[in-house]
Amino acid sequence: MSQWGGGAIGLGLNFVKLVAERHGGSIEARNRLEGGASFCLHLPVEV
User: Locate the Histidine kinase/HSP90-like ATPase domain: which residues (predicted)?
Assistant: First the structure.
């Protein structure tokens, strides 16, 4: 489980990665110069 604030154990992003990969997608994380990180979820879409 993940929780906002101190003491998080980080399973949230692992779960997102698993779901994305099962749907043929991926998740990308980037450091931000201002601090923190940004995340991008890529999922294939049929058009």
Answer: 6-46
Residue 11 — φ and ψ, nearest 5°? -80, -15
DSSP character at residue 44: -
Task: Please give the C-alpha separations between residue 43 and each of 9, 12, 24, 29, 34, in angstroms, as whole numbers.
Answer: 25, 18, 7, 15, 27
For the full predicted model, state whether its pTM sits above 0.70. no
- Cα(44)–Cα(7) distance, rounded to whole angstroms? 34
Higher pLDDT, 4 or 32: 32
Reported in sequence order, the residue ranges of 1-47 that DSSP labels E, i.e. its strands, are 26-31, 37-42
Kindly report the number of other CB atoms within 10 A of residue 17's CB atom.
15
